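Journal club side-thread
Mid-discussion, someone asked how the predicted structure for our own chain would compare to the paper's figures. Pasting it here so we can look after the session.
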Amino acid sequence: MKTPWIFLAVLAAASSSPAWAAGGAEPAPPRPVDPVVEKASAAIAGKHWKEAQDVMREGLAKNPQSADYHNLYAYSIRMGANPQMDLVFKHYNEALRLDKGHRGAHEYLGEAYLMAGNLAKAKDHLKVLDDLCLLPCKEYTLLKKAVADYEAKQPK
């Protein structure tokens, strides 16, 4: 559970923003578009797992220090036919080694642990996401639902 002082600090900072006080929101700076991520995301959206894997493997060859690349590569392997879970875990863990606060990698690694039948490890990543997200974030919400669904399917 988040401590109340964190909430108050965020509330105080937000209310001091002129845009927030006026009822508007300050626009987030545009994120640069990464063509590798964009191409892989398009393949993933079409469930073309092999194509996404090829794109990410090529991207990793050029930029092995990208946590996003390791995360998407592992995801495309995990979602494809006959996932090689050792490779999935290797790349999710590498993403987290490069960026220990990578929320997507924590969510996806938690889901991979559920696929492997390791509820305790999935819950560990849910706890990390709870700590990382000041307010519930989509990664936390999605992993929490996956854990609940997994638990509901377990024999009583």
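Post-session note: The chain is about 70% helix and 0% strand.
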